[in-house]
């Protein structure tokens, strides 16, 4: 229905497609009208207002002039003049602008050649929502399609109206969905890199695959090429590949490369002078691949590969490869099947040694686990007894032979077929191991106040080392196999006392429950048999015989002095031990509407053990070092407190014999937005170990004293986001590592500047500063650092 008014008269035009209103109208016989004053025309979901207009109902067209405003569901136009066809969706905008989403085109003439396509002369383009725009492109001609690209001829980049860069041609993505194209460039500086500049091309292969190709030029190193490929197979299966390569001119003169530690010739150190290693750029690369596949019949496949050409790569380029401060990079393939009560898996673990003397040397000294087969039966009730089973087979192997002994301790076995490094082969780094471990528990209660948990575990271990007894006389015989079996029993008793109380006058938010839980656990190994083999006892086998078997402790680190060579599962521990524990828990009850919610706000656990076995140990090691009998363990305190806006965690160990405490403490505050600040302090020691016997001679080695503080921050504001983690060594008075990620969100919601400051633990002092610039929507936030 066409309605118009002129001096209150009825409009002579009628149509079901248009609604027209104006102060004055002049209708014509050819279905055209001239409208004047407060003109308003509505056609479907489109609406136009102006000062005057000529409308042609036959052609569904309008010529509007003066303060033209045109609104559709997807766009907004303001202009001095607009010629538009409601049917073809085409038109000409003169001296105006068009806005669709965040995108704005402004110019002398904008030709609408389709529903979402435009051509503009002497125009500008921006995605900023502020006025004046923070940035914009101006050009003699702009071709744009909403949801596609804007092509700008004779382009000038303007910052707050000031020209800063001229380009003969520019292509600007104005899509909100993924699309192929160049990404914004990044800039940076590193003390070892020099100035660096890089850019990336994003390739949208299809809906489930994409790739990013990056070229970065380092003033001190050269050009580096990076490729990242990502895929999604289904909603639960995905993967990623990341590869980087550089002919590194800077690394050729790096002392870590030119002067490696060449004590072990089999590790690949050159026999020529170090100057021979500086003849030209050094090829370096890093490769990472990961995938997670959920297969039919509850099978799950995971692959995680990490390969580097040299052991310093992950320190020089920490954002491209994990492993900073780690002894090795893990490459793992696993296939697992899980049911309600069982777990079955096959794993292959190949390790890249990051501690080898020559950073580009061979990896022949690394020990790998291939394959490792596991079967686990979850605790299942049989005749009231909870029964579990753990079966583990693993093959430890290395490509070459070596003897890892930097302290010149005489080896006990000579391999005449391998004369490297004096003819000694490391006999206990490789071999096969099978562990069968059934476990039985029978929990019951004594009345309403005492919980009892008896447990019995049988363990059978079998080892095969893959060599035969020596063929020449004078070489100590070492059997190629070894076995061990044990029965371990334990009884845990605990009770629980509680009280409920209210703080304040509002019981709906201030009702608390305090639980007091004392506990005693006694562990005893009544049966232990192990072959009199050097793998178990080392040089102690002929000194103590079977009367004393060395055991390990919870806080005992793995060192080169260990008699047990494979991993923690070879260690004997808790042979005759009683542990006392006391736990306090504070729970808060809140009434949320009609529902109650419970939260644990404080948990404190205090434990100490007495080791009857340690009280009976010998007074001296085989080399005459006194063994201080310390059957009482440290007093261990673990406190966790979590409140509405702050949390406190403390892990404290007090060593009574040495009257020294070690602790790790953190205090954090946070708000409802997710902003958080955490401050941590740590003071640690390790046990003192006799280098010849591998026995602990004191719970604390004062020479291993370490003190450090760390600060983690995650803060978001309207203009700046900060995500940082900083570590500081209080002993050596230096920063051990820091990572500061920042995102400066500039006005207009159309751009931002991201920056990174980073120093890795054990790195070469290379601090990087990068400034990738984002056009379009600025990212909402940054990755959170660990611990906040």
Structural class: mainly beta
Question: Which word captures the global form?
Answer: elongated
Radius of gyration: 37 Å
Q: What's the main sheet like?
A: 26 strands, antiparallel, barrel
Number of helices: 3
Beta-strand residue percentage: over 45%
Low-confidence stretches: 1-14, 264-268, 271-276, 405-424
Structural notes for this entry:
The protein is mostly beta strands. 2% of the residues lie in helices and 57% in strands. It has three helices and 42 strands. The protein has a 26-stranded antiparallel beta barrel. Strands 1, 2, 3, 4, 5, 6, 7, 8, 9, 10, 11 and 12 form a twelve-stranded antiparallel β-sheet that branches. The protein is elongated. Residues 1-14, 264-268, 271-276 and 405-424 have low confidence and may be disordered.
Structure at a glance:
By secondary structure, the chain is mostly beta strands. It contains 3 helices and 42 strands. The longest helix is centred in the first third of the chain and has 4 residues, at 255-258.
């Amino acid at each position: 229905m066409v309605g118009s008014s002129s001096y209150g008269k009825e409009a002579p035009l009628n149509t079901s497609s248009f609604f027209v209103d104006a102060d004055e109208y002049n209708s014509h016989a050819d279905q055209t009208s001239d409208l004047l004053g407060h003109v308003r025309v509505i056609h479907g979901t489109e609406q136009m207002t102006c000062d005057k207009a000529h409308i042609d109902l036959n052609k569904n067209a309008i010529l509007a002039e003066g303060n033209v405003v045109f609104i559709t569901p997807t766009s907004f136009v303001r202009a001095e003049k607009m010629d538009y066809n409601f049917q073809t969706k085409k038109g000409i905008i003169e001296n105006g602008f068009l806005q669709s989403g965040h995108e704005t085109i402004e110019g002398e003439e904008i030709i609408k050649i389709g529903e979402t396509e435009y051509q503009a002369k002497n125009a500008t383009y921006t995605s900023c929502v502020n006025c004046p725009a923070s940035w914009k492109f101006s050009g003699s001609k702009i071709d744009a399609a909403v949801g596609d690209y804007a092509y700008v001829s004779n382009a000038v980049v303007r910052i707050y109206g000031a020209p800063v860069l001229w380009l003969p041609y520019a292509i600007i993505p104005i899509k909100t969905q993924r699309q192929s194209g160049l990404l914004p460039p990044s800039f940076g500086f590193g003390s070892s890199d020099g100035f660096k500049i890089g850019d990336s091309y994003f390739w949208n292969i299809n809906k489930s695959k994409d790739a990013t190709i990056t070229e970065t030029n380092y003033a001190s190193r050269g050009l580096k090429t990076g490729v990242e490929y990502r895929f999604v197979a289904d909603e639960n299966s995905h993967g990623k590949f990341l590869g980087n390569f550089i002919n590194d001119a800077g690394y050729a003169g790096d002392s870590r490369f030119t002067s490696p530690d060449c004590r072990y010739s089999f590790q690949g150190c050159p026999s020529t002078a170090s100057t021979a290693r500086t003849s030209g750029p050094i090829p370096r690369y890093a490769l990472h691949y990961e995938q997670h596949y959920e297969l039919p019949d509850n099978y799950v496949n995971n692959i995680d590969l990490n390969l580097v050409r040299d052991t310093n790569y992950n320190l020089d380029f920490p954002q491209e490869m994990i492993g900073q401060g780690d002894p090795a990079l893990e490459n793992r393939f696993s296939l697992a099947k899980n049911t309600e009560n069982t777990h079955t898996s096959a794993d292959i673990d190949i390790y890249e040694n990051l501690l080898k003397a020559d950073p580009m040397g061979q990896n022949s000294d690394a020990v790998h686990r291939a394959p490792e087969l596991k079967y686990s039966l979850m605790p299942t009730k049989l005749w009231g007894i909870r029964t579990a089973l753990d079966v583990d087979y693993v093959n430890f192997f290395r490509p070459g032979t070596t003897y890892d002994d930097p302290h010149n301790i005489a080896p006990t076995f000579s391999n005449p077929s391998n004369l490297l490094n004096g003819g000694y082969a490391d006999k206990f780094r490789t071999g096969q191991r099978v562990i069968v471990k059934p476990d039985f528990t029978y929990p019951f209660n004594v009345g309403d106040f005492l919980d009892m948990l008896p447990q019995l575990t049988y363990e059978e271990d079998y080892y095969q080392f893959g060599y035969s007894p020596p063929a020449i006389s004078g070489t100590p015989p070492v059997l190629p196999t070894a076995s061990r079996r044990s029965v371990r029993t334990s009884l845990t008793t605990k009770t629980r006392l509680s009280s409920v109380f209210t703080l304040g006058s509002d019981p709906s938010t201030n009702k608390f429950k305090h639980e007091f839980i004392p506990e005693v656990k006694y562990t005893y190994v009544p049966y232990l048999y192990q072959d009199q083999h050097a793998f178990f006892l080392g040089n102690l086998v002929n000194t103590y015989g079977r009367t004393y078997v060395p055991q390990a402790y919870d806080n005992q680190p793995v060192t080169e002095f260990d008699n047990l060579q494979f991993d923690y599962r070879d260690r004997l521990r808790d042979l005759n031990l009683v542990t006392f524990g006391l736990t306090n828990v504070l729970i808060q009850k809140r009434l949320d509407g009609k529902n109650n919610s419970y939260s644990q706000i404080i948990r404190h656990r205090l434990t100490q053990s007495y080791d009857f076995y340690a009280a009976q140990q010998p007074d001296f090691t085989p080399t005459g070092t006194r063994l201080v009998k310390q059957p009482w363990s440290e007093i261990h305190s673990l406190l966790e407190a979590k409140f509405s806006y702050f949390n406190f965690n403390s892990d404290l160990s007090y060593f009574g014999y040495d009257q020294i405490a070690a602790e790790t403490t953190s205090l954090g505050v946070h708000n409802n937005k997710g902003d958080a600040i955490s401050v941590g302090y740590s003071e640690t020691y390790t046990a003192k170990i006799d280098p010849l016997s591998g026995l602990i001679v004191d719970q604390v080695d004062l020479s291993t004293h370490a003190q450090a503080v760390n600060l983690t921050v995650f803060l978001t504001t309207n203009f700046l986001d900060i995500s940082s983690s900083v570590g500081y060594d209080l002993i050596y008075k230096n920063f051990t590592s820091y990572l500061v990620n920042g995102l400066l969100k500039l006005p207009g919601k159309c751009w931002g500047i991201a920056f990174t400051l980073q120093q890795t633990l054990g790195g070469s002092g290379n601090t990087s500063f990068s400034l990738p610039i984002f056009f379009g929507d600025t990212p909402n936030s940054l990755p959170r650092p660990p611990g906040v």
